[in-house]
Amino acid sequence: MTAVNRQILLVSRPQGEASVDNFRLVETPLAPLADGEVRVRNHFLSLDPYMRGRMSDAKSYADPQPLNEVMIGATVGEVVESRNPKFAAGDKVLGMFGWQEYGTSNGKGLQKVDASRVPLSAYLGVVGMPGVTAWTGLNRIIQPKAGQTIVVSSASGPVGTVVGQLAKRAGCRAVGIAGGPDKCRYVVDTLGFDACVDYKAGRLYEDLKAATPDGVDGCFENVGGAVLDATMARMNAFGRIALCGMIAAYDGAPTPMTHPALILRSRLMIQGFIVSEFPDAWPPALKELSELVATQQLHYRETVANGLENAPDAFLGMLKGRNFGKQIVQLV
To answer: For the whole model, what pTM was predicted?
Structure first.
């Protein structure tokens, strides 16, 4: 086994937009395992929008990513060496080893996964944190009812794709918002949304109005800014908004709400949420999502960057919407 572990560290905090200069690739010797430890060869690394927030030291719901340490991130891989009786070589596991090729753990927080029914990479997306986020925001906050209209921003992304498909299974009208005709076609033709609005076409409100003739009852928001403004203007009385992400604000640009009076006028319920704060939602969500993926009833798509050295570029591209579906990095 190699004695060197390649890692990507966060070495500076972005001033405005993040850049590749905020990261550094290093090689670190692997120390021998101690009793109780497990070594994992990571096969796939997850790239997620929340990481941009962790790069900043501004006050947030979680501590900032420390400088000169391995960048945070979920991984899936294979145990290659174990001195822990709970794990054996060959076990497939999900962990939080971050942007590196090997991870070493005492076993805490390391979860075995079944790659025989669900592809290993899917545990970073549709059957992982993004999928559970979609399930939780839809079912616990929006609480959809058959016949209602649910709008999903970033509808072709790893969270939005799941929200819309689950909304359709609940008997709702699902309307997506995505960037570009290719993504919108995928959202409608493959995922089964009833409509999709291309925010890049320059007619966001007009097109959303046409796609939601009966108004909007629930909104799953991943973007914020002008996208949220347009959806709020279409909300019905007592509508519910699950605020999952604010991609429009991740580089520090101000995103003022254009018509805050709509919250009062329509008596809207807006709840920001972090999926880790809903521990009771994970078991039922993962059970349902894994079964739907295993039986090919839930569609998903991945954008794969090859090689750890390409993680920073892939991450920056994801923040600008260049990915299609879940962005991952293949390390093996």
So the answer is: 0.92
